[in-house]
Structure formats: C-alpha cells, structure tokens
What we know:
This protein is of the alpha/beta class. It contains 14 helices and 15 strands. The strands form four sheets. It has an eight-stranded mixed sheet with strand order 2-10-9-7-6-3-4-5, sandwiched between helices. A three-stranded antiparallel sheet has the order 12-15-14. Helix 2 runs antiparallel to helix 11 (314-325) and helix 3 (62-75) crosses helix 11. Mean pLDDT is 92; it is low at 1-6 and 464-471.
Amino acid sequence: xxxxxxxxxxxxxxxxxxxxxxxxxxxxxxxxxxxxxxxxxxxxxxxxxxxxxxxxxxxxxxxxxxxxxxxxxxxxxxxxxxxxxxxxxxxxxxxxxxxxxxxxxxxxxxxxxxxxxxxxxxxxxxxxxxxxxxxxxxxxxxxxxxxxxxxxxxxxxxxxxxxxxxxxxxxxxxxxxxxxxxxxxxxxxxxxxxxxxxxxxxxxxxxxxxxxxxxxxxxxxxxxxxxxxxxxxxxxxxxxxxxxxxxxxxxxxxxxxxxxxxxxxxxxxxxxxxxxxxxxxxxxxxxxxxxxxxxxxxxxxxxxxxxxxxxxxxxxxxxxxxxxxxxxxxxxxxxxxxxxxxxxxxxxxxxxxxxxxxxxxxxxxxxxxxxxxxxxxxxxxxxxxxxxxxxxxxxxxxxxxxxxxxxxxxxxxxxxxxxxxxxxxxxxxxxxxxxxxxxxxxxxxxxxxxxxxxxxxxxxxxxxxxxxxxx
Length: 471
C-alpha cells in the first residue's frame, strides 16, 4: 500500500529535523564534570595512575571489579553479596558479546543463536562475524517477554533433527580447561528491552534458565537499562527507584534449584550478564563488565583478543572506580538520569495517548508499574505498513523513526510479524521536541488512513456504479 502525500512542495523545509530513532543519551545528560573530577583524582595518584596506564590483569582492574560487585549487590539486593571473582571487565556490551562468542561457542558444535524478536539489530553482525550466518533464529515475545514455549518446541525439533550428528565440540579452537563450548546461544534484553521496551516477567526468567540448563545453552543478557527506571504513572512528587524490581537471569541461575554448583553441574552456569557504563555514564567510556560464575568469568578473561593487551579499558576503569566509590555515579543515576528520562518518557506517552491511540495505535505491557530504558514500541493500525510510514515521516515531516523491519533477526525476518511495528526513542532529542515528533507522526498516520479511506470509498462507489449499469 502506498498513499501519496497531499503536502505542498517545500513544506518540509520549514520543519527542523527530529530524530526518534537514535538510541543515544542527550549530551546534556553526560556527567562531564563528574568524569573530569574522577580522571583528575585518578591521574593525580601514582598508585592509581601507574597501573591505570600500564597493561592490566586479564580479568580487569581489581578495584573496579570489587566496586562493581558491591554496587550490584546493593542495587539487586543480593544476599550473599557477589564475589569480585564473578566479574570480568570489558570494553562494553558489544565488544564483550564478541569475546563471549569467541570463548564459549563453536561454529560446528553450537547449533543456533536464538534471539528474542524484535531484536537489537546491531548484534546480528557480531553473531555473523563469529560464523553464525544463516543460523540466527528468532523467538517471539508476548506480554510476559520471551515466549519460552515457542523456544522449547524449536529446541526440541533441532535436537531431533541433529540426532546422531557431532556430539562433542570440534577441536577448531583447541581444548582449554577454562573454555566451555555451549550447544546453543540465547540472546535477550530482559529489562526495558531494546527495541520492544518490554520487561520479562519473573516466571519467564526462571523458565528460561531451566530451558537453558536442559539444552546446554548460554543465555547472554544485555542488562544495560536496569538502573534507568521510574514509576509507570506520573507521580505528583518524583522519587528515584534505588533497587531493581526483578532479579537478573544470572541471579536466578546462581540460586535456582541448587544454583550453578548443583549436583551434576559443571560450574560454568548457563547465564552471563552483560553490563555497561554506556547508558548510565557515557558510551565513550567504552567500559563495561560481565558477570557469571567464577569459572565463566575466568574463561572470558582468557579471550585472546583481550588477554593479549591486558584488560580492556584499563585507564577508564580507574575513573569508573572513583565514580563508584565516591557515590557520584549513583548520584548521577538517581538525581539526574532517572528524573530526566522519566520526564521524557511521560512527555512521549502523553503525546502517544493524545495523537496516536485515537488513530488505532496499540502499545504493549500497559499494566506495568515500573518502566524505563530508552524506547517505546507500538503497533500501527491496519493496513498501514511501518516501512511506508517511516518513509513518509522523513519526506513530509522531517521525522526519523525506527520501523519494525530494522529489528528483524538476520535471515529469519519472516518468522515474526514486524511490518506494522515502530520503535521511538526519548533519550536523544531535546526534551521539547519529543511530543512534537509524536505529533508529526500522528499527522502522517492520519493522512495515510484518510488516503486509505478515500481509496476504499472510491472503490465502493465504482463497484456500485458498475452494478447499476449491469442491472
């Protein structure tokens, strides 16, 4: 379906561009002063600056690992607290995903990569770079998050089909006592997902861990938005949320039914939490962490690409340690980021309710008490297609949005119906432009629906005239 614009030529030139696709933090929310103070403190102390400027130990800067362990234990209310030996410092979530695949997957033995669909589209090239081209598979979501029943059925089918084939990992990467090759990889963003904004329920998280254990899968979760949370309903007085609402999958794996040290387990576990300072400090820090069992964290630290030059982000790690130890990072999250992103979220939701819902747009998980992240996801009314809406939004309103097809799993695009889905981001644009962007999108949708109605009415009139002529 293509509905052509009735706008006058040149009208778009009067409108400034609005980008609701870019998933970056607005520059005004970057903690410039705090990072400057932390870097000055680190570089002013030889006992910090010297190790910071040299090659680091394989698992990463030990003071940062200790600080992260304490900080995560506090935020997720973990008892007992996690050990720093479960933490490995990384160059960020994307870099670490590549390292995880290099250590814990095998292009022959590892059957498939299962991705929650819609997916964060930039992970697909990372999987393909690790020889999984043609073996990426999508798993749909519902209002509880990943459809574990669907995943379980597909895993059962794969195991039946591969019965009798290579039962042991190949020797392509050589045997190392710190390496384990998993039969399947599962990728998800469980909390405030990118792109769907959904949050996986506690029940689904437990079920997913159980399925991973049953089918020898490593669940890699990007837990990068967890601290960016606020009440779903706009409060009269804003109060920061200083503890996670749900445990991560790595927390569940640690405790569920005997945990990762249960009888018969190999100690590597079936989950790894991919963390990053990109969303809560600044993406340019290129610093993050992974948490898993001690065996998994050690194995990850032995990845050749990072061990060769010492731990990633060694110098930045000294800055982030200072931010954590002084409480400046928490202060930035709770007094700047949470209230700022909450305002942006409320502005966007109010505009969607006013401009889009009356047109038939629908939004998932409307009954949540806590929301967060960077994004909102919604479905267009039939028969509109997101690709066409996105194109007209650029042409007519100078507005950029994320159409559902961008977030399809490579090679498995047709499995999930994304053709009417749209992602919009409230983190990047200036606060005053967010509602304006949704208003522009509403105009595009309304014009397209009007054009569709006109076409339908014209067709009906023509059919009536033909019938009358033939009577």
